[in-house]
């Protein structure tokens, strides 16, 4: 029995497979930004809904990041969440908006309401047009001509509560539930596209590998 081994064809196939593999890895790196952008968009919306849900359950803790008497309502949020994609990966940042609603007994909105209550910034209240300030304390109306300093406008329960909810989303919900339920974790742990396209990769080499790798990572969004 005589066996003829085509060494030249074998070397060509092996080179193309190696090139395909290199292209696949490069494609994943190239598609990383598209993947992170998709995850960023979806995560921001989930974060906002997560905070809304927590606010409805614990209004005494998160009422300050919504317009007066609208705690947990998406249309009354006094916060916004944005994301950025860089060489370091995906990062999120929150900012506070100005309140436009007026609390009962007041004439103007509470300037920087969300930020002041979240950070526990002392506030000094002075009469502007009137000669005295009027307060209702335990049903008794109090008048004073002196400025009144409120050391912690939101109270100890409110201070830092938005930051805690923000951190809770990533430390618990995002890692323990979101990645698993959304299917992202399972998708990333099973890169079947590499094997499925191996035959084509033997012919297409690095270019085919880049195309497959880019498409695989770019499509790794929620619900895939």
Brief write-up:
It is built from seven helices and six strands; from the N terminus they run H-H-E-E-H-E-E-E-E-H-H-H-H.
Polypeptide structure, described:
This protein has seven helices and six strands, in the order ααββαββββαααα. The model has no long low-confidence stretch (mean pLDDT about 80). Helix 1 (about 5-55) packs across helix 4 and helix 1 packs parallel to helix 7 (about 200-220). The chain is α+β, with helices and mostly antiparallel strands and about 220 residues long. The protein is about 50% helix and about 15% strand. The two termini are about 50 Å apart. The radius of gyration is 28 Å and the shape is rod-shaped. It folds into two domains: about 5-115 and about 155-220, no CATH class; about 120-155, no CATH class. A two-stranded antiparallel sheet has the order 1-2. The protein has a two-stranded antiparallel sheet with strand order 3-6. It has a two-stranded antiparallel sheet with strand order 4-5.
Helices and strands, with pairings:
Blueprint: H1 7-57, H2 59-62, E1 79-86, E2 89-96, H3 113-119, E3 123-125, E4 133-137, E5 140-144, E6 148-150, H4 161-181, H5 184-188, H6 192-196, H7 198-218
Antiparallel strand pairs: 1-2, 3-6, 4-5
Helix pairs in contact: 1-4, 1-7
């Amino acid at each position: 029995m005589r066996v003829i081994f085509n060494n030249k064809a074998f070397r060509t196939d092996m080179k193309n497979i190696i090139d395909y593999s290199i292209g696949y890895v490069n494609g994943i790196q190239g598609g990383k930004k598209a993947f992170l952008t998709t995850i960023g968009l979806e995560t921001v919306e989930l974060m906002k809904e997560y905070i809304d849900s927590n606010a409805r359950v614990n209004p005494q803790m998160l009422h300050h990041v919504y317009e007066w008497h609208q705690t947990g309502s998406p249309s009354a949020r006094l916060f916004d969440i944005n994301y950025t994609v860089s060489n370091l990966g995906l990062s999120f940042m929150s900012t506070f908006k100005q309140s436009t609603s007026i609390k009962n007994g007041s004439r103007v909105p509470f300037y920087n309401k969300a930020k002041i209550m979240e950070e526990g910034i002392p506030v000094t209240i002075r009469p502007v047009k009137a000669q005295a300030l009027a307060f209702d304390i335990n049903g008794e109306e109090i008048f004073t001509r002196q400025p009144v300093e409120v050391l912690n406008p939101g109270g100890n329960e409110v201070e830092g509560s938005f930051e805690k909810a923000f951190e809770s989303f990533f430390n618990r919900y995002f890692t323990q539930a979101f990645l698993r339920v959304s299917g992202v974790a399972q998708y990333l742990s099973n890169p079947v596209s590499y094997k499925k396209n191996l035959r084509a990769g033997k012919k297409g080499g690095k270019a085919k590998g880049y195309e497959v790798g880019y498409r695989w990572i770019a499509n790794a969004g929620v619900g895939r």
